[in-house]
Amino acid sequence: MNVLTTHLIACSAVLACAIDVPSVCAQEYPAKSVVIVVPFAAGGAVDTVARVLGQKLTDGLGKPVVVDNRPGNSGNIGARYVAKAPADGHTLLMAALTTHAMNATLMEGQLGFELDRDFQPAALVGYLPLVLVVNGSLPVKSVAELVALAKAKPGQLAFGSAGNGSIEHIASEVFKRQTGIDILHVPYKGAAPAMIDLIGGQIAAIFATAPTAIANLKGGRLKPLMSATANRLSTLPDVPSAREAGLPGFEVAATYGVLLPAGTPVAIVTRLNHEIDRVVALPDVQIKFQQLGIETAAATPDEVSRRIRVEIAKWGKVIRDADIRIE
């Protein structure tokens, strides 16, 4: 009878987790260290966000939370690793959701996973907005004047980007279509060389991430014309939003979130969602993210799922319409 009773208790615990009974699963999780996989190299914005989260989550979860950098293939190597990891909540992906959503079309059939099928969203962290920046000597002071200049010189104004298919490239394509102008796209091997040429006047404009833009605005070498957001950025309060610049609906930002392997029990997903939301709301984390140019955000797992589907559809259409390809 004692053996049978023990067996029944063990089976009940397993069944409880299988059907997502929070009281059982939440008590058992985490059973060991939690790993946040960063699919990009150390030192970048995604890596920094993961390390801030990991430090604070360690306190909340009661187990060490460590960062594991697995860069390569535009973030796909690390993402693929997490997609195939055990669905027990001990392996998380610090995801650049917008990049992964773009990759779904740019690298269709080459990823080894489906973004909207092989992951369970846990939480949204925030987004890194883009800012339209022009060379300081360009005779424009607003988006309207830039558009007018581009229409007067079709195909002559060059917009730089961090590479073919990068978020900066796709932002310029959206801008081109929404304003009806003809501009020249110049891809670089990264944002840094593009910014150097923008300062030097070899190109006219670029959509840069907010911290990159802010770091290069001193001395009047560059001029910010708008943020690619619906509202003004707290880090650039004097720069008009896209809506104020006459481009309602123009929103391009690198969205960050935390994903889990599909099939992770609901109780674990719920706990991680609450813990991550708690961490992001901490005053010192808010200050750190603001220094990085990141606008914080929160969402339920279902809301993140819907956002992923919307981003895949949105960027897929832009990429197909503009015939953007990775060379």
List the helices and strands and how they pair.
Elements: H1 2-18, H2 22-28, E1 34-38, H3 45-61, E2 65-69, H4 76-83, E3 91-96, H5 97-106, E4 119-135, H6 143-152, E5 158-161, H7 167-179, E6 184-187, H8 191-200, E7 205-209, H9 210-215, E8 222-227, E9 253-261, H10 266-280, H11 283-292, E10 295-296, H12 301-321
Parallel strand pairs: 1-2, 1-3, 5-6, 5-7
Antiparallel strand pairs: 3-9, 4-7, 4-8, 4-9, 4-10
Description:
The protein has 327 residues and is an alpha/beta fold. It has 2 domains: 29-127 and 254-321, D-Maltodextrin-Binding Protein, domain 2, CATH 3.40.190.150; 129-227, 3-Layer(aba) Sandwich (D-Maltodextrin-Binding Protein, domain 2), CATH 3.40.190.10. The chain has helices at residues 2-18, 22-28, 45-61, 76-83, 97-106, 143-152, 167-179, 191-200, 210-215, 266-280, 283-292, 301-321; strands at 34-38, 65-69, 91-96, 119-135, 158-161, 184-187, 205-209, 222-227, 253-261, 295-296. Strands 1, 2, 3, 4, 5, 6, 7, 8, 9 and 10 form a 10-stranded mixed beta sheet that branches. It starts with a helix and ends in a 6-residue tail after the last helix. The model is unreliable at 1-24 (pLDDT under 50).
